[in-house]
Specification:
single chain, about 100 residues
Length: about 100
């Protein structure tokens, strides 16, 4: 961290003790603003993490539902295909007899 220095004109006007107090005031203000920023950043990051976890949960549910629907439709098409093949074979066997 860089050292905070007051210009010599300001130091001469204020005096040495007032200059040090002014520098301490700026350092304290910087420290408070940094702490406040870090706290807000942590809060916002926790909100974002929660939203990501919620979205991930929703996507997982959607994917599992999609997999189930796909399997259901595949099964229905297989049953339909089996019924169609059985009907075709039945017709062919009737004509052969």
């Amino acid at each position: 961290m860089e050292t905070l220095l007051l210009p010599s004109v300001v130091r001469e006007k204020l005096g040495e003790s007032a200059s040090k107090a002014l520098i301490e005031m700026f350092v304290d203000a910087h420290r408070l603003s940094t702490a406040s920023f870090e706290q807000r950043l942590a809060e916002e990051l926790s909100k974002v993490r929660f939203e990501i976890a919620h979205a991930r949960s929703d996507m997982t549910n959607a994917v599992s539902n999609l997999k189930f629907d796909l399997l259901k439709w595949c099964f229905l098409f297989w049953i339909g295909q089996l019924a169609a093949m059985t009907a075709i074979l039945g017709l062919l066997l009737q004509r052969v007899r």
